[in-house]
């Protein structure tokens, strides 16, 4: 219901939630996916316009702060064992510092409900020799296809999916020379391009 005088809207949350991609695939593809693409492009334009040095600040005041601090260290040490990193130093470490949901992000909450958030990213190129293998994809029936996967073995992966626990003896995998892959009933729009190599 809406009242034009007060410009307020009362929403019922009975049918809110995430779209189930298996059940509501059309909704996801027709409504949600284009919206995500639109927001991604809008955010990229905002970042290009507002976050580059010397950029015009018109239209850049939708947030409480025009930009958040980010500290970068470009000669960081290896975040893992030295034997697995390509170099001991010269790696990248990014740190947002503590961001306050009120003073940095502009969320109006009671002081007892405010949060401080900190993101740190420590990146280093890793050696792939001795930690990788190219395999043929096997579906759930054990049939091997001609699709090749490049797997990285830096430790086992354990996770959860809506249907079952996930476990694999590899850390990550990417299709080899395949930009759209259909694996196990799921389509992936990511993959390495033919002129792209790992290792």
Overview of this protein structure:
The protein is about 15% helix and about 30% strand. It is an alpha+beta fold and about 200 residues long. The strands form 6 sheets. Strands 3-4-7 form a 3-stranded antiparallel beta sheet, with no helix packed on it. A 3-stranded antiparallel beta sheet has the order 8-9-12, with no helix packed on it. The N and C termini lie far apart (about 60 Å). Residues about 190-199 have low confidence and may be disordered.
Short description:
Helices cover 13% and strands 29% of the residues. With 199 residues, it is α+β, with helices and mostly antiparallel strands.
Structural topology:
Blueprint: E1 2-3, E2 8-9, H1 25-50, E3 71-76, E4 91-95, E5 99-100, E6 116-117, E7 120-123, E8 132-138, E9 144-152, E10 157-160, E11 165-168, E12 172-175, E13 181-183, E14 186-188
Antiparallel strand pairs: 1-2, 3-4, 4-7, 5-6, 8-9, 9-12, 10-11, 13-14
How would you classify the helix and strand content by structural class? alpha+beta
What string gives the helices and strands in order?
EEHEEEEEEEEEEEE
Q: How many structural domains? A: 3
Q: How much beta, percentage-wise? A: 25-35%
The major pleated sheet works out as: 3 strands, antiparallel
Continuous helix count: 1
How many DSSP E strands?
14
Instruction: Evaluate the radius of gyration.
Output: 23 Å
In whole angstroms, the N-to-C terminal distance is 58 Å
Order of strands, widest sheet: 3-4-7
How would you sum up the global shape? extended
Low-confidence stretches: 188-199
The helical percent reads 10-25%
Please identify the oligomeric state.
single chain
Q: Average pLDDT, to the nearest integer? A: 77
